[in-house]
Amino acid sequence: MLEYQAPERDLEFLLFDLFEVQKAWQDIPAFADFTDDLIRAVISEGGKLAREVMTPISQQADAEGSRWEDGVVTAPSGFREAYDQLAGGGWLGLSGNPEYGGQGMPKLLGCLLEEMFWGSNTNLYLYATLTVGASICIDAHGTEEQKSLYLPMLYSGQWSGAMDLTEPQAGTDLGIIRTKAEQAADGTYRISGTKIFITAGEHDLTENIVHLVLAKLPGAPDGTRGISLFIVPKYLPNADGSPGERNGVASGSIEEKMGVKGSATNVMNYDGAVGYLVGEENSGLACMFTMMNYERLSVGLQGLGAGELAYQQAVRYARDRLQGRAPGGPQNPDGTADSLLVHPDVRRMLLTIRAYTEAGRAFAMLVGLTLDRGKYADDRDSQALSELLTPIAKAYLSDKGFESAVLAQQVFGGHGYIKETGVEQIVRDTRIAQIYEGTNGVQALDLVGRKVLRDGGRVLKRFVEYMSGETVPDRYRDALSAEFDRLGKVTESVLARSGDDVDLPGAVSTDYLELAGLTIYAWLWARMVEVAGDDAFGQAKQQTADFFFARLLPKTLALEQSIYADSSAVMAMNDTTF
Ligand SMILES: Cc1cc2nc3c(=O)[nH]c(=O)nc-3n(C[C@H](O)[C@H](O)[C@H](O)COP(=O)(O)OP(=O)(O)OC[C@H]3O[C@@H](n4cnc5c(N)ncnc54)[C@H](O)[C@@H]3O)c2cc1C
Question: Is the C-beta atom of 439 inside 6 A of ligand 1?
Answer without folding.
Answer: yes
